[in-house]
Amino acid sequence: MTADWFYPLPPLLEGTLLKRYKRFFADIALTTGEVITAHCPNTGPMTGVCHIGGRVLVSQSTDPKRKLAYTWELAEVHDTMPTWVGANTAMPNRVVKSLLEAKQIPELGDYNTIRPEVRYGGDGKSRIDFVVDSKSTPSTYIEVKNTTWAKGTLALFPDTVTTRGQKHLKELTALIPDAQAVMLYFINRGDCTEFAPGDQADPTYGTLLREAMAKGVRVLPCRFEVTPTGIRYLGLANLAFS
């Protein structure tokens, strides 16, 4: 892994979160005094991240076809220290794709090709985020999960009941032993050094994750430092559960 690997972000505008509503909308007062409505890509509860009155950063699109010109990108939290947390759930897959192309995750070994959004699963309707292929080993299927909930330095996923996430764990487990399977938790904040399933929010998910690991699914909790200018990969967090 190269220590200076960095994924740049577009120029961002600072503001204060006034309200989040209907899951997809956030009213934000920019430092210019203008109040805007931004798209909120994170449809979950954003536990511990969504703070009314907190500092946020948004990007602005020039695409005239967009209904909302602004997208909520980052939120500042004050847990162990002031920390920027990624709010855009579309960002992790873009960053991971760039990481895979640069071969910055040594735990995945060597591979020749990267395939995004590959159909898999018993019904053929699910899509895995990435498949990497090697000439000498079975293909590796990689599911990416955006992780923002934290208790101190412990990152937790999920922060709510996720039947979709449970389904993904079952489908990944079913790939073993014909393929390799990886659950990659994208820890979208730089203040966490450990990872565990969010048993309090979804005990079923925690049980399924432990069963998946016992059957050969690998867990890679990847740490990222999030800043107003970009995202830096910090390596793996420690697993803090059994």
Q: How many helices does DSSP assign?
A: 3
**Quaternary assembly:** single chain
Rg, nearest Å = 18 Å
Structural class label: mainly beta
In total, the number of strands is 17
Taking pLDDT < 50 over at least 5 consecutive residues as the criterion, the unreliable ranges are: none
Helix content estimate:
10-25%
Strand proportion, as a percent range, falls in: 35-45%
Largest sheet: 7 strands, mixed
Distance between the termini: 27 Å
The rough form would be described as globular
Would you tell me the overall average pLDDT? 95
Spatial ordering of strands, largest sheet: 1-16-15-13-10-9-8
Secondary-structure element series: EEEEEEEHEEEEEHEEHEEE
Could you characterize the architecture of this molecule?
15% of the residues lie in helices and 43% in strands. The protein has three helices and 17 strands. It has helices spanning 91-101, 163-175, 203-214; strands spanning 6-8, 13-21, 25-30, 35-39, 55-60, 70-78, 82-86, 113-120, 126-133, 140-147, 149-151, 154-157, 180-187, 194-197, 218-226, 230-236, 238-239. It has a seven-stranded mixed β-sheet. The protein has a five-stranded mixed β-barrel with strand order 2-3-4-6-5. A hairpin with a 4-residue loop joins strand 3 and strand 4. The longest helix has 13 residues, at 163-175. The radius of gyration is 18 Å and the shape is globular. The mean pLDDT is 95.
